[in-house]
Structure formats: structure tokens, C-alpha cells
Design brief:
Elements (H helix, E strand, L loop, with lengths): L1 H11 L15 H9 L2 H17 L3 H21 L7 H17 L6 H21 L7 H23 L3 H19 L4
């Protein structure tokens, strides 16, 4: 846990544009590093885990699982060439909204919460898939970003369960970062 507290501020110092830097080829490592390299993806993935932990019960596994499944679907759509305007703005909004949900320990009806998480997952997946390097293995790349996202969900979940106050404070920080992302300040 102590290592996480030391690494988290460094992660916050990363820049959203770093998530969109090119990799030489579509490999497992390139896919895994994609969500870790940008503040927008990193914070949204952590927030899903934090928020799922606050929900309790089956939502602790349903929210991250549905996010990962729809992230993979969005990634496949992005790799197939589907492009939607406003994806980056939607991703920034996801950071803000998820941060607010965590900070406020918001309890939504399960279907609403899963739909919200799923919608955000599709946006993040579209971005991951669209930014996949052209050379290499799309499957390895997708496995990498799905695995990294699941790991970040688990970290958030692990923090939220024993440390509710810390989870709320992290949620507030994530929401502030979301505002910065929306206005191009971060």
C-alpha cells in the first residue's frame, strides 16, 4: 500500500497526451502501457475500481467486469475504424464524473451505474483501438490495454475497501483533474 501512495503522485504528474504517443508496433507491452501513459485513462480506470469498492456487494465485481468487456468492444470498434467526434471530451468528462461519484460516495441504481461505466468504457476503448500502431498484433495490443485497465481497477478497489476516506480524497482529486482535462489545463 505504501508503494502505491508513493507512485500515485508520480502518475498524476503524467500528461494526458502521453497516452497517445506512438509505439513502434502493436504488442502486448504497447497495449499495456497505453492506459498507464496518460492521466485521462489512468485516473478513469482507478476511479472505476474506487467507485466499485464503495458500492459493495456484487457491484464490486460487476462494474469493473462490465467496464473491461465494453472497453474491449470499444477497442475492437476503434481498430475497425469507427471514429466518433468528441471522444477525447467524453474521456475527460468520464474522469470528472467518476471522480465526483467517488468523492461523493454516490450510490446509483445498479443498472444506471453499469450503463454509465459501460458508456465511458466504450469511449476509452475507442481511443485505445484507434491509436493502435498499424504494425503488429491487434489481439496482443488489445489484451495489453484490457489487462492494464483491469489492474488499475483492482488497485482502486484495493484502496477503496480499507481506506474509505482516502478513496473519497482520491475521488476529489480525480474530479479536479477531470476539470483540468476538460479545459485543456492538464
Amino acid at each position: 500500500m505504501g508503494k502505491f501512495l508513493l507512485v500515485f503522485p508520480l502518475a498524476l504528474a503524467s500528461h494526458a497526451a502521453l497516452a497517445h504517443s506512438g509505439h513502434d508496433s502493436a504488442t502486448l507491452f504497447a497495449g499495456f502501457s497505453h492506459p498507464l501513459g496518460g492521466l485521462d485513462h489512468l485516473l478513469a480506470m482507478l476511479a472505476i475500481g474506487l467507485w466499485a469498492g464503495q458500492q459493495g456487494g456484487a457491484a464490486r465485481w460487476q462494474a469493473p467486469l462490465s467496464f473491461v468487456l465494453l472497453l474491449a468492444l470499444g477497442g475492437a470498434l476503434g481498430m475497425a475504424g469507427l471514429a466518433l467526434s468528441g471522444v477525447e471530451g467524453g474521456i475527460a468528462a468520464s474522469v470528472l464524473v467518476l471522480g465526483l461519484l467517488v468523492a461523493g460516495q454516490a450510490r446509483l441504481p445498479r443498472a444506471v451505474g453499469l450503463a454509465l461505466a459501460g458508456g465511458f468504457a466504450l469511449l476509452h476503448g475507442l481511443a485505445h483501438g484507434a491509436e493502435m500502431p498499424l504494425d503488429g498484433s491487434p489481439l496482443a495490443y488489445a489484451a495489453g490495454f484490457v489487462l492494464a485497465s483491469a489492474c488499475l481497477h483492482l488497485i482502486g478497489l484495493g484502496v477503496s475497501l480499507p481506506l474509505q476516506r482516502l478513496a473519497r480524497a482520491l475521488g476529489a482529486a480525480i474530479a479536479v483533474a477531470g476539470v483540468g482535462l476538460l479545459f485543456g489545463l492538464v
